[in-house]
Structure formats: structure tokens, C-alpha cells
Predict the 3D structure of the following.
Amino acid sequence: MTELIQNLIDGLGRGSIYALLALGVAVIFGVMHLLNFAHGELITVSGYVAYAMFNQGWSWYLVAPLIVVVAIIASLLIERVAFSLVRGASDFTLVLTSFGVHFLVSAMFVMFVGARVKTFSEPGWIADTIAIGPINVEVFDLVVIGVTIVTLLLTVAILQKTMFGLALRAAAADFDTARLMGIDSNRVIRGAFALSGALAGIAGIFWLMRAGNTAPSSGIDPMLKGVLAALIGGLGSMRGAVLGGLALGVAEVVLRSQLPGEAAALTEGVVFALIALLFIFRPQGIISVATAERV
């Protein structure tokens, strides 16, 4: 029982990062019906900026908020440079555009910065633990879970209590009707990308803390985790995105601890197999979402 509780806490810590990534994916999908495969590049860009600032002597306390700001700016730039030009195009064109942004950002870092991995120091407290009875809980997991809870509450407040949130929810339900009611489509879409960037930036802080490095291909893994978690939860559902991220994190940690010996290295494969079974028997994900016309 102690081991199970320990794994659940570790899984919730990992899953909280996935939940933030998935929520960012869900926000964009809800407005544009775009599955953004360039979402992980926000962490790549933030990682290189963080590396540059560490070389200037900055500490994590200064770099952490900068990562969020950089992710928001990068998200808005991607929307402006790439997605605004293909708005209203077919789903296939939008997906190709997101893949194109992903490969373009990676290629630019390879050409102008280099393909070598850039390493930086992790925070000194990242390996600290707190004993709660027989359970040793990592401080990092507690911080991630706490920050995620606060972020989710703030996101809910923005969506429920502000005019932007009302416009965003209206656009997600029926964009054409919302536009006829006077909602500025450009403002809503840019706001959605800014919110998505902020969520990716907060997730990126903890992702980069844990990794301790960045590279041109660093965005692939967070992108896959975010998209998979959003798919598991049900595309377009923000609650589903959070549940999908937590479920994915817990599944990875529990399987890695329970699989015998060398089989633990196959955790990713087993997780993907379980996800495939989920899509076979419940293709709509954990939470079903009514489809609406895409903009």
C-alpha cells in the first residue's frame, strides 16, 4: 500500500505537467479545431532562452517567469506567422502547417545554434524529499501539483468570470454564431494562443527543471504527451485534458514500478498499447464533446 501511494503521488506530479500541456492543446482545439503539433516548440524556444540567461548568471527564480513570457510571445508569433495565413483552410492543411512549424523551429536551432544538447543546472531543491509517515514525497512533485492546482483555478476563473473567457467559450461552442453576436474573432484566437502559451510556459518550467537540458528536438516529447493526454481526455474538453494528463502520468509511473526487471524499459510501449485499446473501445476519449464548426 505504501508503494502504491508513493507511485500515485509521483504519477500525479508527472501527470500535472502533462495536464497543463494537454490543456493548452485543448484550448486551441476548442476554438480552431486545430490539433497543434507545434505546441512543444514553445518549450524548445523557452529552453534556449533559459540556457542563454543561465549563462548570464541568472537564477531559476528569474528564469522561471521569463520562460512563461517567452512561451506566450512564441505562441502569438506562431499564430501570426503561420496559422493566421491558413485560417479557414481544411483540417489537413492546418495539421500540415503545425507539423511544418515544428520542423522549421527545430531546423532553425540546428542551423543557427547547433545540434548539441545545451545543459544547465537544476534547482538545488529538486531532489529533496519530505517524509510523511513511511512515504518519502519529493518536494518537486509537491510544488508541481500545487502550482498546477493554482494554475487550473486561475484558468477556470478566467474562463468563467471574464469577458474574454465568455467569448472563448462562446467561440468554442459555435464560432459563426459568436462572431455574428459581435465577438472579435481575431482577438479571441490570439487570446486563446496567449493562454495556451502561458500554460505551456508553466509546464515548461518544470519540464526543463527536471530535464536540465534543451536541444532542437526537445519539443517532441512534451508535444506527444500533451496531444496524447488531450486525446485520452476527449479533444475539445478542458476537463478531459486535465484528467487525461493525470491518467497518463499515473499510468507511466505505476507501470514502470510494477513491470518486472528489464520490462520496465517497455513502459512507453505498454502505455501506447493501453491508449490504443482506449481509442478502440472509446474513441471519443474519457469525456465526450459535441462537435462544432471549425473556423
About this structure: The chain has eleven helices and four strands. The first helix runs from residue 2 to 32. The longest strand covers residues 129-132.
